[in-house]
Amino acid sequence: MSQVLTAEPRVSATRARIAIALFFFVSGFGFATWASRIPLIQHRLGLNEAQLGGVLLALPAGLMLTLPVTGQLLQRFSSRHVMMAGAVLYNVALALLGFATHTWQLVALLFCFGSSRNLLNLSMNAQSVGVQTLYERSIIASFHGVWSVAGFAAAGVGTLLIRGAVPISYHFLGVAVLLTALSLAFFPNALALPPSPPATKSRFSWPDKPLLKYGLITFASMACEGTLYDWTGVYFVQAVHAPKELATLGFTAYLVAMTTGRFLGDWGVSRFGTKPMLQASGILMTTGLLLAAAFPTPILAGLGFVLGGLGVSCVVPLVFGLVGKASPERAGAAIASVSTVSYFGFLIVPPLVGFVAKASDLRWSFALVALLGGLVVWLVPKLREEA
Known about the structure:
387 residues, mainly alpha, Growth Hormone, Chain: A, 16 helices, 78% helix
């Protein structure tokens, strides 16, 4: 705990927790704002599923390619400053996305959106680890719950604005201004953490064998999460044949379930243990995506997205918690190493959904992604016993 508040200003645990929760809210609301408009942006630019898949590749590509840069920045500057810079750049990119009128513009801006999201997310997760040291009970999952609440709120706002025929440019610009103002207001209460110790390996390190299992679990979860984030709205239009004004219904159902699961995650771990929770998560991912693929109706596909949302809800925070316990001296570096693997799930799988859908249809794409839940179920028993 002595490392947490080694620099001024000193803040109370409660104020720090609220401040970092706010940055999780900014990240979640901004990302879901973009995701809620994907079907309309696809229509505006005249993109088919394969073209959309290629365009969506730009966001995780930006995220992945800035991992070494973010690591270097966190070794030179306090995570609070990296977090604030990331929040500002993130919202600037979001605002500009609303004005993209050509595919190349959308690709370039999504790359910047992903890069700034990486700056924001890794630094705010470092802040959340610092806040956790101020509490005896587990509170880190609640930050991810706030992220989900923000996503749900953004989906609701997106639905209302779509029905009100509000232009995408006004929508994104208004959200970006509001989120930037909130970030500036709560930044003073972020923890003044010292920079991370320099890495002993290369700046872009692959996890060793024990950590690789954690990475593969989060790879599978983030692949399913990215697929549900990017494609549920399109799935409701293309496979379920729901009206375009209801395109966000499946996305909203998914977010509600993921939010609920994250706030119940700490209770579930206390009641059943971490490994059973992770295995149940894998089962729910597989069942939900297969249900949506097999029965593309509003009710059953929506139920499938609910199960999928519950499945992906706690995997990443639970695994990050286990990684912190496995490597307590260098928790930040270990989490970044695991993230190297997990981000490939976000990078590779959602765009591949579009290419598979072009070759066959979205139902086959969702069925194939469902198999990743089985990977989680298979890997969890192989984790070290102390996890």
